[in-house]
Amino acid sequence: MANVIDTTGKVVRDVQTPSVLDKDYSEKAHTIFRAVFRELANPRAGTASTKKRDEISGGGRKPWRQKGTGRARQGSIRSPQWRHGGVVFGPQPRSFVTDLNKKERKLAFVAALSDRFRNGAVTILDNANFNLTKTADFAKLIFGSAKDAKKGPTTLVVLGRDEHNADAIHRVARNLHAVGVTDIGALDVKDVLRYTRIVFTTAAFDELGASLEQGSKK
Question: CA 127, CA 27: separation in Å to the nearest integer?
Answer without folding.
Answer: 36
